[in-house]
Amino acid sequence: MKVPGKEFTPYGKPSEYEADVSRFPSPNRVMRNSGVAWTPLHLLEGSITPNGLHFERHHNGVPQIDPDQHELMIHGLVKHPLKFTVDNLLRYPLRSQICFIECGGNSNAGFNKQPSRAAAGYFHGMVSCAEWTGIPLSILLHEAGIDKKAKWLIAEGGDAFVMNISIPVEKAMDDAIVALYQNGERIRPENGYPLRLVLPGWEGVLNVKWLRRLTVSDSPAMARNETSKYTELLPSGKARQFTFEMEAKSLITSPSSGMVLKDGPGLYQISGLAWTGSGKIKQVDVSTDGGRSWAQAELQGPVLPKSLTRFRIPWHWQGGPSILKSRAIDETGYIQPEREVLLANRGRHGFFHYNAIVNWEVESDGNVNHVYNRNEKENNNLGLDASWD
Amino acid sequence: MKVPGKEFTPYGKPSEYEADVSRFPSPNRVMRNSGVAWTPLHLLEGSITPNGLHFERHHNGVPQIDPDQHELMIHGLVKHPLKFTVDNLLRYPLRSQICFIECGGNSNAGFNKQPSRAAAGYFHGMVSCAEWTGIPLSILLHEAGIDKKAKWLIAEGGDAFVMNISIPVEKAMDDAIVALYQNGERIRPENGYPLRLVLPGWEGVLNVKWLRRLTVSDSPAMARNETSKYTELLPSGKARQFTFEMEAKSLITSPSSGMVLKDGPGLYQISGLAWTGSGKIKQVDVSTDGGRSWAQAELQGPVLPKSLTRFRIPWHWQGGPSILKSRAIDETGYIQPEREVLLANRGRHGFFHYNAIVNWEVESDGNVNHVYNRNEKENNNLGLDASWD
Questions:
Q1: Of A19, B46, B147, B297, which has the most beta carbons under 10 Å away?
Q2: Interface of B with A in 241-260 (CB under 8 A)
Q3: Residue A239 in this model has a pLDDT that exceeds 80
Q4: What's the predicted TM-score (pTM) here?
Q5: Residue A378 domain-assigned?
Q6: How far is residue A81's CA from residue A103's CA, in Å, rounded to a whole number?
Q7: What residues of chain B, 37 to 56, have a C-beta less than 8 Å from chain A?
Q8: Model confidence over B99-147: pLDDT tens digits?
Q9: Longest Cα–Cα distance in chain B
Q10: Contact A22 B6 (CB under 8 A)
């Protein structure tokens, strides 16, 4: 307090004491610009993800797009093919929605035979939550005049991978947004600058970044990321495909894996996040005894649909070993499953869409680690190479 | 799309094409670390302000505080004086609230005899909105055991100015938060890292940054910023002091001063922000003919109390001159006043708490400028030096 403080900054950044609060990149071993970078959920609080820490998922890096050169085309089964510049789009009505985006591969270390040693965010942090603002896609499709035969939109990104994927027309006409803004400012480059398709509650890969083309069609593209990826070969031999809506999930972010309750026994606050692509979170139960008993956590209001919902509950730690769990229930009545239930349903080829209950074991010395249920049978999942393409 | 994109970044930043989207510093002429830096509201959408663009107001710069060295003391009329480290505080229950913070001096160029030539954000952008997370102050005060004689808390900041100000105990026990997080991450240095007092809906100066001390007292401090500043000498000769709650206000952010409707006549979207310290915004009316007729704008839900609320309404510009106005009404029934009403109430010494209706004039060539009402009498306000101390 004895020296004058620093001057103003045009664009602020976090304190230098917070340098460890960063995304954790897991690039592909060969292609360093492909893979994922995780949101450090275990170091955050509340429900909004600051833009600098929103998770990243790229298939060939972050394109550097001049917005004055960027165009969005809508064509295919439409009466009037249309092309828009960013300036054109800004003449249309805007809508804002706070919602999460979650990668379909989030948490998939849960399929591994051994519990993960990663911090909670570097295991489950391919989910983030922001206020997205843009043009309701339905408005642009109405203007283009979609044909009665139209059933799908093939969305294409402007990256070097030419990311493409198929979206049912019903969702496009419902709450899809051609987003320009993320938490008030223009979308960050790594999240799709200047245009991103946002499909609230639906799998991340469908929220196409650097959006440049929407082809209206009577059939899906059967693109790479809806056939060989983001699908599951089930025990029945059938593939689980087009699993759009992200199922209810929850995660205790504090205390969580890698933390230490260094002050010893006493009163702690359990804090975590719950979310569902089906609407609102109705309830989150927390257990501190490995699931023998459960208590209802307090949900931080306002509980918004398809958004990260913060839950909290006090816990008096007696000092002995303890297993913490959280279980989300959404407004449809769906209950987040235990891991053995999820594994049994998915069989040996599970890799995507892992939403099982997470266990954090608190040891007597206060160390917190990820563990599986003790009564689980041997996991017969094949286990896959964890390097992201 | 023909070159691979860039690699991952631990902490992201905006596109280089958005370099103009920045805070606008108005430092004091002598003390470059004092003054304000404005949020560019005219370049933002939605209701959340990204942390890098939250407005700044300092009296002696931004202290660089090591959180491990920082302590919060609560003393005075209490049974148990208490001292907390940041780690201590993190053992307490947390609460999150999305709310605006607005400087009591925001928009005060409206008192000037001539309309402002500044962009909307550099005239009205000492208001920002974020999700703040921290410990309800009531919990800490209960633990300290405040005396029955206690009526005020004197809050003190850890900056070189030693900012201090008086807060009624009722507000402290109601919804005040000792905040640690802003939009999910730790508070930025310029917004009070590591601790800020957040008083939802109340004047910015009371939201003490770098919070280090709360002295419980039976009387206010009568500090500089509640006597010679942030007060008004009224026409009656009495001073208007302790005007805590920010009154309802609104602002059209697009189109706004300095913009050009370069595409000529046609359909435009009017978009703006409304807010009130009294709770929720109930209604925003928009006029495009200088106040002769009004239409009700659509409010972007969810409308949250004491938060920035986005309103939008389509407008068919015929091409002639036009005066745009917005008028906020809050849930108490309070209606944002016209400028002449506000000036008449405040008299010759108005400088703070300007919340009058703003006029943007659209000229036939599409240029947008700030204007006053044509029928206004000569403004007899003394006008004050606009340099911030």
A1: B46
A2: none
A3: yes
A4: 0.97
A5: no
A6: 31
A7: 37, 43-54, 56
A8: 999 999 999 999 999 999 999 999 999 999 999 999 999 999 999 999 9
A9: 73
A10: no
- Give me the mean pLDDT over the B48-59 stretch: 97
| Cβ burial, residue A377 (10 Å; 0-12/13-18/19+) | exposed
Q: Clarify whether residues B155 and B218 are in a common domain.
A: yes
With an 8 Å Cβ cutoff, is B233 touching chain A?
Answer: no
Are residues A7 and B13, on separate chains, in Cβ contact within 8 Å?
no
Average pLDDT over residues B50-59: 97
Q: Residue A98: its chain B contacts at CB < 8 A?
A: 48
> Same domain for A232 and A264?
no
Return mean pLDDT, chain A: 95
- The whole-angstrom separation of Cα A275 and Cα A193 is 25
Same domain, B108 and B169: yes
Enumerate the residues of chain A whose CB falls inside 8 A of the CB of residue B162: 1
Q: What is the CA radius of gyration of chain B?
A: 22
Chain A residues within an 8 Å CB radius of B61: 4-7
B91 CB neighbours in chain A (<8 A) are 263, 266-269
- Distance between CA atoms of residues B364 and B367, nearest Å: 7
Helix and strand numbers (H, E) in chain B are 5, 24
Rounded to a whole number, what is the distance in Å from the CA of B75 to chain A's nearest CA? 20
Residue A176 is assigned to a structural domain of this protein? yes
Provide the 3-class DSSP secondary structure of residue A197. strand
Structural contact between residues A244 and A226, judged by C-beta atoms closer than 8 angstroms = no
Region B31-38: mean pLDDT is 94
Kindly indicate the confidence band of residue B384, based on its pLDDT and cuts at 50, 70 and 90.
low
Query: Is A181 at the interface with chain B, CB within 8 A?
Result: yes
Give the residue with greater pLDDT, B387 vs B369: B369
Question: What is the CATH classification number for the domain harbouring A184?
Answer: 3.90.420.10
Judged against a pLDDT cut of 70, whether residue A380 lies above it is answered with: no
Predicted pLDDT of residue B385: 52
pLDDT at A20 over 90: yes
Kindly identify which residue of chain B lies nearest to residue A261, measuring between CA atoms: B91
Min Cα separation B183/chain A (Å) = 5
Give the distance from CA A97 to its chain's centroid. 15
Partner-chain contact B91 A267, CB within 8 Å = yes
What six digits make up the tokens of A342?
């999820």
Closest chain A residue to B308, measured at CA: A184
Structure confidence at residue A379 (pLDDT): 63
Q: Tell me, what CATH number does A292's domain have?
A: 2.60.40.650
Residues A160 and A308 in one domain: no
Domain count, chain A: 2
